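Subject: Sanity check before I submit

Could someone independently write out the C-alpha cells for this chain? I want to compare against mine line by line before I put it in a report. The sequence has 146 residues.
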Amino acid sequence: MVTTSDTATISKEILEFIVNNKFGSVCCTSGNKPHCFSCFYAVLEEEGCLVFKSSENSTHIQIIAGNNQVAGTIISSEISMSKIEGIQFEGTIVNKDTTTLQAAKAYYLRYPFAVAVPGRLWVLRLNAIKYTNTTNGIKHKKTWER
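---
Independent answer below. Compare away.
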C-alpha cells in the first residue's frame, strides 16, 4: 500500500479516477443515526474538493448543518468481476465564499442542465482517501491524507 500526505495535492492516479467518474455516495450522522445520500459531483482539483448540488431543506443538509463531517464512496461505473475500482473518503462540508465562483463554474460546466434544478452548491473538502484498484485479482491500494 502506498501512502501520500500533502496539504492539497492528491496523487495523479487517485485524482484521475475521481475526475473520470460523476456519481458518489455521501454519509453523515446525527447523534447515533447515520444517513446516506447519492449525488452527482464536480471536482475542484487544486483544492482537493468535490462540489455537489442539494436543497437546503433536504434531510442530509439539515444533518450536515449540525455535523459537517462526512464520509463516502465513489465506485467506477465500469465494474466487472475482473476489475473493481473505487475510493472511500472522509471530508468536511465547507462554506467558503472564495470557492463559490470556482465551484459554480466546475459544476455547471459539467452538468449544464443543473442550472434549472433548484438547490444550492456545496463544497466537500476531501481530508482522507483510500483508493482500491483490483484488476485480474491483483489488488493495488493507495491512500492520501491532507
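---
OP: Matches mine. For the report I'm noting this point. The beta strands are 2-5, 23-30, 33-40, 42-44, 49-54, 69-75, 83-94, 120-135, 138-145.
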